[in-house]
Amino acid sequence: MASPAPAPPAAAATHSPPPRIGLAGLATMGQNLALNIAEKGFPISVYNRTAAKVDSTLVRARDEGALPVLGHRDPRGFVLSLARPRTVVLLVQAGPAVDATIDALTPYLEPGDAIVDGGNEWYQNTERRIEEAAARGILYLGMGVSGGEEGARNGPSLMPGGHVDAYNNIRDILEKAAAQTEDGACVTFVGPGGAGNFVKMVHNGIEYGDMQLIAEAYDVLRRVGGLSNSEIADVFDEWNKGELESFLVEITADIFTVADPLDGSGGALVDKILDKTGMKGTGKWTVQQAAELAVAAPTIAASLDGRYLSGLKDERVAAAGVLEEEGMPAGLLEKINVDKKVLVDRVRQALYASKICSYAQGMNLIRAKSVEKGWNLNLAELARIWKESLQGRWCSDRMRGDGL
Ligand code: 2AM
After folding, report:
1. For the chain, which residues make up each domain, given as ranges?
2. Is 207 known to be catalytic?
3. 97 lines ligand 1 (CB under 6 A)
4. Helix and strand element counts for the chain (H, E)
5. 46 Cβ below 6 A of ligand 1
6. Over the stretch 223-282, which tens digit does the pLDDT of each residue have?
7. Which of 48, 98, 102 to mutate to test the pocket of ligand 1 (most atoms within 8 A of CB)?
């Protein structure tokens, strides 16, 4: 195996003028967002607690087109490398790591500088940090970043909330880095306080719903309709040409065409995947918030329940045995006689209607929170900046890389 290319010098001090923006936290999302910003023509300083990730970022910056990325291994040099007013974007794990990173950087920040947390943070943590930063004259944004690693590199949907001046300082950078659609860049100032994080949380909850709906549509086609994998692939392919067009539907079609490389008889890989999933938490927060605000969000709640139930694999296998013994064998539904064509069309319509309901539930939740907090959120703007992330190209990457 070839040894990795040596890292370029840590701080290529040749870039001038100094960067206006820095990014701390160079795991996958941070690295990709930093490279994206640099590629759009904005020099950027980068820092990570563990220096190896600074080196790997610099190697990528060099390999992906000599991008203007300046590496730093200590927080002081990192902060002081920035032109004032400084903006430091954090992409570290939500929770205590954000506080630790803020503690490491703030001694060197000055009044008027800004911190932008790009993680999937609980909105109340952002509201606490806005107050703590304000006591030092520092501006603060909590910014949802949607699109997983590919979105971060090539155009995420950005949901910044908090101090509007912090947004205005880097608005031009965010507008260039964000996904571009015919309706403009996928970024807007969401609102004050933790509004950006809250909106990102609901966005993820809506995606939980989307995935559950697609899974249930598949289940009906398979169990009730008795469709084969290749027939289901064709159905999703066809659906992707109509009002259901989205990346999730597109990749669902692809999933059914992949053969199991370990199965000599050419069986489909999808039938070998364990039906058991985990989650990272934003769906649970969404449902908790819906309950707190007395907003019905049945699709999102059902998707969360679906994940909990999927985790109970052993119990489900045991229960199937009990049902079998009681005269309800697996595959009972497959014995129902249905007209496949009619079924496929009804499932398509049901999927579309359910999806609309799910989005409405999410929007309703955001509206209720906006009223409670006095955030005055613009729902149409949110729908606009979600265009690429919820419907577009980056969905699959978010399933892999983001807070789902
Ligand atoms: P690391 O590379 O030094 O572990 C995702 O885990 C990112 O969050 C990484 O960049 C990681 O830095 C960073 N991170 C996690 N915990 C942290 C902490 N307590 N302080 C600073 N950075 C942290």
Report:
1. 21-193, 203-399
2. yes
3. yes
4. 16, 9
5. no
6. 999 999 999 999 999 999 999 998 899 999 999 999 999 988 878 999 999 999 888 889
7. 48
